[in-house]
Amino acid sequence: MKKSVFSAIAAIALLFVLSLAAAAQQISGDYVETRSADVYTGYCFANGEVGLVGDEAILGWHVRQGGWQGVPLAGLSVVAAVKAHATLGDPYEDPYPATAVLIVDSQATPEQHAALLAFARHMGGRLFDHVERVVSAPIEFAVLREHAHHGAALVRAGNFVTVQTRSLNDQDHVCGNEEIYYPPLTQVAHAMPAVAVTDQYQGPGLDETWSNHGKRSAFVGSFSR
Q: Where are the domains of the chain?
């Protein structure tokens, strides 16, 4: 009898510990991505860009709730700029190894800084195998949630990154058979294609900067882990 009671108590304690560990890993928030190639497009336009552009990307996460590795991160952001060897998403060419610069919210404590880096590396996978530089900067990250503005976002990371997006409209359907040609580069809970009014990286570490405007090259959505 005593043995069964102790076993039940041990099982309950184990479930409690596991639930705490799972809760420590729960994290969710907003996600914004831009590419130097259209992601919402028709085959004719995509074929005209593949191999020529699309080797650059900006990815950003803003944590609304939760944390990573037991560290609370709500209200903080991390942004990455990536330069690949080929068009990202092209099934016929290998874009790796890619190089990346990670920009961490300057409001983060040292512990949060490390957790944001670990989270970004987890989400980015092979994109962040070769991080050339990590910088700290103030990050402004706003996603408009009103239905009329779906797809509208603004991300600024210091003087390095500026991303502004808007929702697609009828004028963005050029050939009439557009689709999501390239999916998002990381795991998302939800994402919608959008127009990158501004897609700009003017920072160090990639031996390249870019400034693109008016391309159907963005995703605005959310993540949850």
A: 25-224
Tokens of 7: 């076993």
Tokens of 38: 């259209």
> From first to last of its 225 residues, what are the pLDDT tens digits of the chain?
445 544 444 444 333 333 444 444 599 999 999 999 999 887 666 767 776 788 999 999 999 999 999 999 999 999 999 999 999 998 889 999 999 999 999 999 999 999 999 999 999 999 999 999 999 999 999 998 765 567 899 999 999 999 999 998 878 777 667 788 899 999 999 999 999 999 999 999 999 999 999 999 999 999 999
Handedness of CA 115, 117, 120, 126 (dihedral sign): negative
| CA–CA distance, 100 with 30 (Å, rounded to integer) | 20
> Are 78 and 41 in contact, with CB atoms under 8 Å apart?
no
Burial of 108 (0-12, 13-18, 19+ CB in 10 A): buried
